[in-house]
Amino acid sequence: MQAMAEYSSILLENAVEALSKLPGIGKKTALRLALHLLNEDNVQTEQLADALLKMKHNIMLCERCYNISDTKICSICSNPRRDENTLCVVADMRDVLAIEHTAAYNGLYHVLGGVISPIEGIAPKDLKIEELVQRVQTEDIREIILALPATIEGDTTNFYIYRQLKDFKGKVTVIAKGIAVGDTLEYVDEITLGRSIQNRTAFN
Amino acid sequence: MQAMAEYSSILLENAVEALSKLPGIGKKTALRLALHLLNEDNVQTEQLADALLKMKHNIMLCERCYNISDTKICSICSNPRRDENTLCVVADMRDVLAIEHTAAYNGLYHVLGGVISPIEGIAPKDLKIEELVQRVQTEDIREIILALPATIEGDTTNFYIYRQLKDFKGKVTVIAKGIAVGDTLEYVDEITLGRSIQNRTAFN
């Protein structure tokens, strides 16, 4: 009854309720979105609903790298122009997107699905680490780049993976930590600045 | 092909595309929303899609006040506890929500569907003004409150409606213009401040 009194339409109320469950969408924004859809052609709402349902029902994890994919093997893994000898280990599929956007990497990925975190109850067995070890044994990989978050959990996971890969004959590297491009030194935290001095590279 | 390279999933790409057509939702936010839905149970996506489709396909305008409604006559018009002698004329259904939230009004509404605007090509015939005039003739209305936006278009519409209602024997009022509650005078624009002095009320 309260809901009807508020919106004069339980259908609108339900739509606002469902939209406001999305992260960062409050009741006011949800109402704005619902009223926008009401003002537009049916086709916009139908396309939105259809796209969300198809995504939710049909998307899968790539059987090789565990990135999300429409097919059993994702478009990156099946792309013959990618360098199959280099493997970048990331925590999350968002990290794949971020690295792809840099256009600085042309190898393959391995998505762990998170990092080791005792506080959040994420153990090594919850991540695709065992799959990484197996993959390294069967594929011709020469370098593994660890691109995990620069956090304690990320460092712990890096260390754990490094120990699991003790039989790996290739290179294991981690992405560089240092000051961001565009940073002025006075605002950089001392740990990052210290690392950027320790890990200085030749000027050329 | 570019899209596949970007997201490794055309299904995700389509969902992001559909979400980013919503007002105020950019590509990054759309991606965040899509990934959130991917992480949640199927039921959340299904409820969202279902609520949006049901709203879009089944919502209608109340035949009496032209507010959006699930039924031919909306819950406000059919509520016996509302004062049927007072009619508040608003531009948009959002204005009904705003006034309902004040809990300062217990009468009925008439939703015009906009205001007269030659620039946007909105003429009196595009609004529910004729329906208002007819309604006033058949219902026992004693006061009409004009609650349109305090803009030139709103004033024009007020004036047009006032002339159309020349045979109406009851009161026609407009909502008060003045400084907002909490305002300090120095930041109020001079037109509003001038109006608030002209329209001063007895102190009690």
Polypeptide structure, described:
The structure is a homodimer of 204-residue chains. Chain A is of the alpha/beta class and 204 residues long. The first copy, chain A, folds into 2 domains: 10-58, Helicase, Ruva Protein, domain 3 (Orthogonal Bundle); 79-202, Dna Topoisomerase Vi A Subunit, Chain: A, domain 2. Chain A contains 8 helices and 6 strands. Chain A has a 4-stranded parallel β-sheet. Chain A has a two-stranded antiparallel ribbon with strand order 1-2. The radius of gyration of chain A is 23 Å and the shape is globular. The N and C termini of chain A lie far apart (72 Å). The model of chain A is unreliable at 1-5 (pLDDT under 50). The interface between A and B is large, with 59 and 59 residues.
Write the layout of secondary structure elements.
The structure is a homodimer of 204-residue chains.
Chain A: H1 2-7, H2 10-19, H3 27-39, H4 42-58, E1 60-61, E2 68-69, E3 83-90, H5 93-102, E4 107-111, H6 129-138, E5 143-146, H7 152-164, E6 171-174, H8 190-198
Parallel strand pairs in A: 3-4, 3-5, 5-6
Antiparallel strand pairs in A: 1-2
Helix pairs in contact in A: 2-3
